[in-house]
Amino acid sequence: MLEWERIARGAVNVEVEPHLREAVGSGRKLRVKLGIDPSSPDIHLGHTVVLGKLRDFQDLGHTAVLIIGDFTARIGDPSGQSATRRPLEEEEVEANAATYLEQVFKVLDRDTTDVRRQSEWFMGMELADVIRLAGKATLAQIITRDDFRKRLEANTTIGLHELLYPLMQGYDSVAVRADVELGGTDQLFNLLFARDVQREHGLEPQDVLTTPLLEGLDGKQKMSKSLGNYVGVTDAPAAMYGKLMSLPDELITRYMRLVTDIPESEVAKWEAGMKAGGNPRDAKAALARMVVQRFHGETAASPAEEAFQAQFKRGEVPDEVEERALAEGDRTVADALVELGLASSKGEARRLATQRGVRLNGETVEDAEAPYQPSSGDLWQVGKRRFVKVVAPAERS
Amino acid sequence: MLEWERIARGAVNVEVEPHLREAVGSGRKLRVKLGIDPSSPDIHLGHTVVLGKLRDFQDLGHTAVLIIGDFTARIGDPSGQSATRRPLEEEEVEANAATYLEQVFKVLDRDTTDVRRQSEWFMGMELADVIRLAGKATLAQIITRDDFRKRLEANTTIGLHELLYPLMQGYDSVAVRADVELGGTDQLFNLLFARDVQREHGLEPQDVLTTPLLEGLDGKQKMSKSLGNYVGVTDAPAAMYGKLMSLPDELITRYMRLVTDIPESEVAKWEAGMKAGGNPRDAKAALARMVVQRFHGETAASPAEEAFQAQFKRGEVPDEVEERALAEGDRTVADALVELGLASSKGEARRLATQRGVRLNGETVEDAEAPYQPSSGDLWQVGKRRFVKVVAPAERS
């Protein structure tokens, strides 16, 4: 069954596999749920793994139900334990959701995506409903969850509100009548728990499919914006190409499987080729082309490749480029040049830029006051011969 | 300080005692909170221990804040684990609250009692507020609670909604701005937890005072309607007197301390008298008189005593009366007579009653279809010589 092969490709846990397999083969139109957290406005290749799986379902005729977790984003972390979960204003959430959706539809098919917001069903929910909902679950169910158990053992603070979140995520599945839910492997507990919540509400429990967490460009940690080891889906073609060319060789075929849609047979060919002594650089260039094509269209790949090769192949870039760590966070181009030691002052940085002497990933940067957010693999060039490659700091707080 | 002696008398835990002591001595008018559960319409002597303590505060010029837990009574136990916590209709809750209040004011001073209902602040509370409230507490705080810990260790089901109840009870203290909260010793955790909830809301934490749980007429278990070992505050004078005369001797002075307001010096005298060989029957009769006077007025004690003595002293009741166990629950008088072996059929029971041959605690019962709820110590009489005393079953499910 070809449909099933497509669905199962790259999936880690396919719980109750026979059931999902039968549903996919039945010709029935399934409602496939994915919840997203609108606390950041951008998505990167790591996010596209599960989005690509959702697109697979769409291509087979099913409906994607994308749930924007706007409700909890507006509450934040009331215990004040988490700096990253500060409460967001409604406008901020909506702005994030808007850019997020714009980027999501680079992967998903807009026409068969049903976008829902948690606030639709949670805004009017009252304490009495919460108590009834909570009564459907037991403490034991919740604290067998791996991360809760570990935190309890380590005596780390667990706010009581955190116990409500799995319940709420489960209730989302009730509200949208999900047949299937997708998520990263770290979401497995929540996805399974939603099955219990659905059952308690008299619904058929959903099937569950998880996708792997993609390693970042450092080859070690999960891809994440805050770790600076990411490729953003809105990165310019040349930057995207250049960043992917910095990927460790051992991740090339993994990326091919998870962030492109070339057939498994072709991935296997690249794998065999490299084992037989083929140059990983060629495989990596193929991967970089595929990714640029995916997010910028067929015609964008060649110019990006040429810009990259112009620097490296024609000897403009030395084989060994000095690497420098930059902390995360927005700054201006002028600040970055000073931090990287490519300019002695902001004044000098501005002058260099105006004279068209500054390039980022092969493209000239004239505005020294333009904002810049460091990303591992970024290649800065000043004048003809000074190059610095940005890497994520070795240790982060 | 006489005021403090009155407050501290009979109290088990007086947490942060110096603080409460100072508050009581300061002349400031305190808001003293007591929460009651309107799941049953009647109160018994066990309830009057904490109510009496609340009255002490009133007599010293403070305000009693009586909170009727109508909100959770209407929700019941959504996990369906508890048969006794079925959801009640609003009318049922209000009817219970009405009879309950009627009885409560046999102890409390109506004029300085502020009656509040949980629904006042919980009806409009939304999920977002619940999450914020829950975020003020940690899982560790809750599961260190004795009963939760034991149930977790015993693998007994704990519904997630149960974790919300201490929070809600704590929020009650915020809503009514309690300075002090009273409760039975089994409530100590909740009362202390409320202090944290108040602090999180920027309020001064309440002081906490607990009172002992009163043993029932069996001298073993906590007084409870469902165990049939209780004296109801609405029991008729003769029944009340008769039941108290069945109290085990070793509880006489404990009852004097907890359910009468005679001075400690007098209790000590009775104690010394019995140690010196005095008849406990005299002390018990004094206790029974005091309780009847308390709930039925000065003039009610003598007739009750006489009715009791008429049976026992004038030889109408044998010294040794057969005892029979009756399961709890409402039944008709006719059913009870058959169960107790005092009638061979309901028909016979009806005939005996019509002929004025049936007495309960010295009073003639003519209507065999009248409802009857067994209570330990009840004395049934059929004809001149057949007596049976009701006792609680030895084992209960």
User: Most extensive interface: pair and counts?
Assistant: A-B, 41 and 41 residues
Segments of chain A where pLDDT lies below 50 for 5+ residues?
Answer: none
What is Rg of chain A? Answer: 23 Å
- Separation, N- and C-terminal Cα atoms of chain A: 48 Å
Strand order of the biggest β-sheet of chain A: 1-6-5-2-3-4
Please tally the β strands of chain A and state the result. Answer: 13
Secondary structure class of chain A reads: alpha/beta
Q: In percent terms, what proportion of residues of chain A is strand?
A: 5-15%
* Secondary structure tally, helices of chain A: 18
Sheet having the most strands of chain A: 6 strands, mixed
Shape of chain A: globular
Mean pLDDT of chain A: 87
Q: What is the percent of helical residues of chain A?
A: 40-55%
Q: Quaternary state, please?
A: homodimer
Write the layout of secondary structure elements.
The structure is a homodimer of 397-residue chains.
Chain A: H1 2-8, E1 14-15, H2 17-25, E2 31-36, H3 45-59, E3 63-68, H4 70-75, H5 90-104, E4 113-117, H6 119-122, H7 127-134, H8 139-143, H9 146-153, H10 164-175, E5 180-184, H11 188-200, E6 207-211, H12 237-244, H13 252-259, H14 264-275, H15 280-296, H16 301-312, E7 322-325, E8 331-332, H17 333-339, H18 346-354, E9 358-360, E10 363-364, E11 371-372, E12 379-382, E13 386-391
Parallel strand pairs in A: 2-3, 2-5, 3-4, 5-6, 7-13
Antiparallel strand pairs in A: 1-6, 8-11, 9-10, 9-12, 12-13
